[in-house]
Write a structure and sequence with these properties.
Blueprint (H helix, E strand, L loop, with lengths): L9 E6 L2 H9 L2 H31 L13 H23 L2 H11 L6 E7 L2 E5 L5 E5 L5 E4 L3 E5 L5 E6 L9 H13 L7 E2 L7
Parallel strand pairs: 5-8
Antiparallel strand pairs: 1-2, 2-3, 3-4, 5-6, 6-7
Helix pairs in contact: 1-4, 2-3
């Protein structure tokens, strides 16, 4: 339906894909900050330990450091501890990769596989899962609309993604502006397209 008059709405039908899960994961601010901190810490400590390791090796080479009695044992301990921390941080950052998390969530959630239908109405959003289960949420429980090139994300008051509305689910892509306005009007009480628009993040 193309109308945005009260009582009207939109129907979206689609097959959910792992990429649909990746975008909200990639834009999760807390998870992104944690991963960025781990990457920065791993790179910084790797550079520091590379220098310390070079000094340790140099102290063990009389041809490089004359009259050296060898590197003290504590340097080996510190070298190993820092490299362990670097490796651990790198592994955690890898596990927080949005693409990996999306694929893991997809494999663990077989109920997401199949054809979905979303009914966006004046009272709220109703989703019909592939198994026929229905979930309805009134607009009062939706605090924000985030839009990307591929979908509209409906966030609750805690900032968590409550619904994903893939744009490809619309019967006609020309309905996207009308759906954008309808979502804004329903959540923000205004007709102007004020949805927060964010570009998809590429996994890094």
């Amino acid at each position: 339906m193309t109308s945005i008059e009260p009582g009207a709405g939109f129907s979206l039908t689609y097959e959910l894909q792992p990429d649909d899960l990746q975008e909200p994961i990639a834009t999760n601010a807390r998870r992104k900050r944690r991963r960025d901190r781990l990457i920065r810490a791993a790179v910084s400590w790797a550079l520091i330990d590379a220098a310390l390791t070079a000094v340790t090796v140099a102290l063990d080479l009389p041809s490089v450091v004359k009259n050296s009695s060898g590197a003290p044992s504590w340097m080996y301990v510190v070298d190993a501890a820092i490299w362990f921390f670097v490796a651990y941080s790198a592994v955690i950052a890898w596990r927080l990769n949005p693409q990996r998390l999306a694929r893991r969530a997809w494999r663990a959630s077989s109920q997401l596989h199949g054809r979905h239908r979303d009914e966006v109405r004046s009272a709220g959003v109703t989703t019909i899962a592939p198994n026929g289960n229905q979930t309805s949420t009134p607009w009062a429980n939706i605090a924000q609309i985030r839009e990307t090139d591929k979908a509209f994300y409906l966030l609750d008051h805690r900032g968590a993604t409550r619904y994903i509305l893939p744009k490809r689910g619309l019967p006609n892509p020309d309905l996207i502006p009308a759906l954008r306005e309808f979502l804004n009007r329903s959540v923000n009480g205004q007709a102007s397209p004020a949805a927060v628009r964010s570009e998809p993040k590429s996994p890094g």
